[in-house]
């Protein structure tokens, strides 16, 4: 009766097939992902950046690391060893003989299938005389001949072979296991059991437990959960956080505590060098007893951060610790901003909670710039350039040049710039210009609308407003002072304080008024021609809303002026037409009304196409994953390569509140389109907002663009609201 039988590989041949496949599955993907093929590319990239970034700390550290690192060599050696093992196993497998062959008695007797009994007996007699052991033949071969002869001459054996492929009848089902037999040998049982126990009961649980314990301690941004809770506590406790308080909260993060992070180190020399730095820095509020600001790790991190901002030299013992603290700061500041946004959303939705002030969130952004550039808050942004020192600023800020920002320096004539920077030699001057031209200049265009609405330009109270901001990155060499250029953040101090009366009239405000007047005049002239239909009234309301919304758009004023000129032309035509007969005047008025309706229909189609295109862009943006590698930041004192990233948000600077949550733009390489959404206020009226773009790496490149929005009353919501209240009243009665 047939059964089942498990067999281990006594010769170990099958195990080689398994081992070869296993090694190949590891070596081939590891070679693709781990082979240091980008080493030469990294050298070429650093060489191309040398002219601009050659003096940066991160560049010098990266260049030194690429030249002295032995990690690529070790990777290559390990991968080559793996390939050597794989090729050896493949060669071993190719030399193995196949032990299994299909049994065929005719082949054993060297006969063709279907031979007669007489031919079988004759052939067996010849071969048996040849292979008989008594005649000096092979005994194993003789046994095969006897078995084949019996299978073909015995009727029962022959039937079994024809039915089951075996003269003895149905065989036992055999399952081969690709493990050598010595593994299950009784002599090696204790050793095998010990290996299994260590692998599956000790090593595997320890590895999984360590990974799980580490993963639950960190958030998705690789920030300790305890640090996030600490930031939330202090952001709620201190809604208005000045720069000094923010620095204390930042350096209290558990990333700097050796008990929570093994990368943080407390050295024996800290008791000598940290107090010395405290004396040099001056008043840094050392005696504050509030935990965790009074803890040693927090005090050390705060001192090292302040020394970095003051560009002080530290000893070699704690220089590595200072680099560690500085590298962690941008990610921690981003976490503080995220916490502030969460508290703002909670305060808006629930009420009764204290939301962080806009000043606190913007101080985080400013501190990120200060950390990357190694500058204090009150320092000039010109100190970001190489070879600029404090004593050189008096040449720039003199009454003759009045250069206080990077934009002012770019706008100077070449002769004036060279004369002002005469303290620099030719080589240093060329290096300063190369660095200055590499700085980014962002062109910001805004478009305000209500998506998924019939009239996307007529903004009603309570609707979801979408501000589409198109950011175009250019080099600072492309910067030119224009009347409609975005306002630098440094020039809006009066606006930040909410004193609108002391502000000068901006160019965008005059253009907005011109657009309003043109839209009103156009509406009046259209009403003189013919009574306005409902569809035309709707189109006029949309155009009027366009004039109110696009207050900071130069194209709105020019378009309104063109419409005004076309209306004047139509008036002159109408005056000439008055000389004609009344029937001709009626025909002309009918033609004009038809053309106006066609124009309105064409505008609706254009709006519909624009809406569909915006929806498609949003869908593509959700599917695409863009690289966060944009452009390396020029930073003289930051120890790690930093990419150019930006914060974009809408704020009410008068009320010191966020209107939209800050969007961290990390993919702006050439052009990027960002959508900022916020709910419109419940009260109608005109609101003065600001679209703000801030860099997380550069000082003095922030932009603030005014955004004036008019919210109208929604008669549809009013009607359905009254209907709902009426039905509720009837149901209650």
Automatic annotation (TrEMBL):
It comes from Sinocyclocheilus anshuiensis. Mediates cotranslational and post-translational transport of certain precursor polypeptides across endoplasmic reticulum (ER). Proposed to play an auxiliary role in recognition of precursors with short and apolar signal peptides. May cooperate with SEC62 and HSPA5/BiP to facilitate targeting of small presecretory proteins into the SEC61 channel-forming translocon complex, triggering channel opening for polypeptide translocation to the ER lumen. Required for efficient PKD1/Polycystin-1 biogenesis and trafficking to the plasma membrane of the primary cilia. Residues 566-594 have a biased composition (Basic and acidic residues). One of its GO terms (molecular function) is RNA binding. Gene3D superfamilies: 5' to 3' exonuclease, C-terminal subdomain, C2 domain, DnaJ domain, Sec63 N-terminal domain-like domain. Residues 544-557 have a biased composition (Low complexity). It is found in: Endoplasmic reticulum membrane. The ER translocon complex consists of channel-forming core components SEC61A1, SEC61B and SEC61G and different auxiliary components such as SEC62 and SEC63. Keywords: Chaperone, Coiled coil, Endoplasmic reticulum, Membrane, Phosphoprotein, Protein transport, Repeat, Transmembrane, Transmembrane helix, Transport. GO terms for biological process: nervous system development; post-translational protein targeting to endoplasmic reticulum membrane; SRP-dependent cotranslational protein targeting to membrane. Its main location: endoplasmic reticulum. This is Translocation protein SEC63 homolog. Residues 595-609 have a biased composition (Acidic residues). It comes from the Eukaryota. One of its GO terms (cellular component) is Sec62/Sec63 complex. Residues 513-531 have a biased composition (Basic residues).
């Amino acid at each position: 009766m047939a059964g089942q039988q498990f067999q281990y590989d006594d010769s170990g041949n099958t195990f080689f097939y398994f081992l070869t496949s296993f090694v190949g599955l590891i070596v081939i993907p590891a070679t693709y992902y781990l082979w240091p093929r980008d080493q030469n590319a990294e050298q070429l990239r650093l060489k191309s950046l040398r002219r601009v970034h050659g003096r940066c700390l991160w560049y010098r550290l990266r260049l030194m690391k690429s030249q002295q690192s032995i990690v690529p060599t070790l990777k290559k050696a390990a991968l080559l060893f793996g390939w050597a093992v794989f090729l050896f196993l493949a060669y071993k497998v190719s030399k193995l003989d196949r032990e299994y062959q299909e049994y065929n008695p005719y082949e054993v007797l060297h006969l063709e299938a279907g031979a007669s009994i007489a031919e079988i007996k004759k052939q067996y007699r010849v071969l048996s005389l040849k292979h008989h052991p008594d005649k000096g033949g092979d005994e194993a071969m003789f046994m095969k001949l006897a078995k084949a002869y019996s299978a073909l001459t015995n009727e029962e054996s022959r039937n079994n072979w024809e039915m089951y492929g075996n003269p003895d009848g149905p065989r036992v089902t055999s399952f081969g296991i690709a493990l050598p037999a010595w593994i299950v040998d009784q002599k090696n049982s204790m050793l095998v059991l010990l290996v299994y126990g260590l692998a599956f009961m000790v090593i595997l649980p320890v590895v999984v437990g360590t990974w799980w314990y580490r993963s639950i301690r960190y958030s998705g941004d690789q920030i300790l959960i305890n640090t996030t809770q600490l930031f939330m506590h202090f952001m709620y406790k201190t809604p208005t956080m000045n720069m000094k308080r923010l620095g204390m909260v930042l350096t209290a993060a558990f990333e700097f505590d050796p008990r929570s992070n093994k990368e943080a180190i407390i050295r024996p020399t800290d008791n000598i060098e940290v107090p010395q730095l405290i004396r040099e820095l001056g008043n840094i509020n050392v005696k504050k007893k509030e935990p965790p600001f009074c803890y040693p790790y927090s005090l050390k991190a705060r001192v090292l951060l302040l020394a970095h901002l003051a560009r002080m030299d530290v000893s070699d013992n704690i220089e590595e610790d200072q680099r560690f603290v500085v590298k962690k700061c941008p990610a921690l500041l981003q976490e503080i901003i995220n916490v502030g946004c969460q508290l703002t959303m909670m305060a808006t939705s629930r009420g009764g909670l204290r939301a962080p002030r806009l000043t606190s969130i913007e101080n985080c952004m400013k501190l990120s710039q200060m950390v990357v550039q190694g500058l204090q808050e009150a320092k000039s942004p010109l100190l970001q350039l190489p070879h600029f020192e404090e004593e050189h600023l008096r040449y720039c800020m003199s009454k003759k040049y009045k250069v206080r920002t990077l934009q002012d320096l770019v706008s100077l004539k070449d002769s004036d710039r060279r004369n002002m920077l005469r303290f620099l030699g030719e080589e240093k001057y060329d290096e300063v210009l190369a660095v200055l031209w590499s700085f980014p200049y962002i062109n910001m265009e805004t478009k305000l609308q209500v998506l998924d609405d019939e009239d996307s330009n007529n903004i009603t109270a309570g609707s979801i407003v979408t501000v589409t901001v198109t950011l175009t990155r250019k080099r600072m060499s492309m910067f030119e002072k224009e009347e409609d250029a975005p306002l630098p953040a440094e020039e809006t101090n009066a606006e930040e304080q909410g004193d609108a009366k002391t502000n000068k009239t901006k160019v965008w405000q005059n253009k907005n008024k011109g657009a309003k007047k043109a839209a009103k005049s156009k509406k009046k002239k259209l009403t003189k021609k013919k009574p306005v239909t409902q569809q035309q009234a709707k189109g006029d309301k949309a155009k009027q809303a366009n004039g109110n919304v696009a207050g900071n758009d130069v194209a709105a004023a020019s378009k309104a002026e063109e419409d005004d000129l076309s209306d004047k032309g139509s008036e002159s035509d109408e005056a000439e037409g008055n000389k004609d007969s009344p029937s001709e005047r009626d025909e002309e008025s009918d033609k004009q009304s038809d053309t106006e309706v066609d124009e309105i229909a064409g505008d609706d189609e254009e709006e519909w196409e624009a809406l569909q295109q915006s929806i498609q862009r949003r869908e593509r943006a959700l599917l695409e994953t863009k690289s966060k590698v944009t452009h390396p930041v020029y930073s003289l004192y930051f120890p790690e390569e930093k990419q150019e990233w930006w914060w974009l948000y809408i704020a009410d600077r008068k009320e010191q509140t966020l209107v939209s949550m800050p969007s961290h733009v990390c993919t702006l390489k050439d052009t990027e389109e960002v959508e900022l959404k916020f709910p419109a206020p419940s009260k109608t009226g005109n609101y003065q907002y600001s679209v703000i773009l801030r860099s997380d790496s550069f000082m003095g490149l922030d932009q603030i663009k005014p955004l004036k929005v008019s919210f109208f009353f929604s008669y549809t919501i009013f009607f359905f609201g009254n209907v709902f209240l009426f039905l509720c009243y009837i149901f209650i009665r």
